[in-house]
Amino acid sequence: MSSVVISTRVRLARNLKEFPFPCRLNEQGREKVIEKVKSALKDSNSPIAQEFSFIKMSELTPQQGVSLVEKRLVSPEFISNTDGRGLLLSNDESLSIMINEEDHIRLQVIKKGLSLEDAYDTADKLDTLLDENLEFAFDSKLGYLTQCPTNLGTGMRASVMLHLPALEKSRAIGRIADNLSKLGLTIRGAHGEGTEPKGALYQLSNQVTLGISEKAAIENLKSITQQLVTQEEQARERLCSRIEIQDTISRSLGILKSALVISHDEALRLLSNVRTGIESGQIENISTDTIDGLMVAVEPATLTVKSGKNLNANERDIERANMIKAEL
Prior knowledge:
alpha+beta; 8-stranded antiparallel β-sheet; two-stranded antiparallel sheet
């Protein structure tokens, strides 16, 4: 399963009852929300509270903000205007709380592999911890109240990150996407709505939040994910039996180990090929964890932040090639 499902994410949207939605808050109001959420975590006396650091978004450089998006720790919308916005981030970056995004609180949990129940359980515990000191906007008929009606109800978005090279190559993704929409799910690029898939990475998530329980939504997503995994594995077995695909995989590893300059898109494409080779048993002595880490590390802003230098596009391509060679 881990060969196809890279990670799981569960996100909960919550709002404080006594405050208007963030879009209607002035600067003072936003600061009050930030302090309330920070205090709710700090005053909980829970060991988990000690794991979090607070980041004032307006104090980050643009590159640092984009890097958080590349790591899927915050949304693109969250960094579009950083005034009056804060982020509570755990030391291992598996837990994050965006404050004053579209809603007052966007709490998210990221776990490796297919871990929907585990991720939801952690999110639910953190949600309960905050609720002990905050009063969330809730309606007995509508559930949790959110700025966007599409999040009403559970306020939960659960998603899995999938590596689907065989289904992509067979051009089955379009048909699959149409079928998934009828089941209340959506599949899109790794960074969510409006993003193109690169490196055969896809995000599968639930769309329905109203009139369905969190447990039912999780079970539905898990069931569909398992079906997609089976389809990918079957298609991959056929794909990787072809000598030209095996050749592509070998050449991809050779380029990654020897290139002096490599672009972001080429790196993701070649890393995807190598990951497929590892999963099929063609490539040994390299782990999928190494490739998954590189798929994040090659992102432009993340690469720049890690280098500690202000790199232009060409310098990034050189730095990227050097980093990949060193890692492999």
